[in-house]
Amino acid sequence: MVKTCSAKNAQQEFPSLLGRVRRKKDTVIVEEQGRPVVAMISFDRYQALTKRRDRLFAVLDRVWARNKNMPARDARHDASQAVKQARAARRSRGRLSA
Prior knowledge:
By secondary structure, the protein is an alpha+beta fold. The chain has helices spanning 7-12, 14-24, 43-67, 72-92; strands spanning 2-6, 27-32, 35-40.
């Protein structure tokens, strides 16, 4: 469950919020003047998110390494073509609308 609270309330209720995040795996969004500024998530969730991010960036790192000497214009063209091909393949499997 996601709970939203003000920064002032978060300071006052920190032990309780920490327990909710730790035990119930809740997410707490802390707001200042009605705008979200911090999200409290369980460490397990944090690890899962960073692991996923690292996997995705590893793909980008490999692509970057393969194309680091390619002129930017050619790289943009190749990327555009790859996106078109991927979308066409997904569309043919019925997973993406036109």
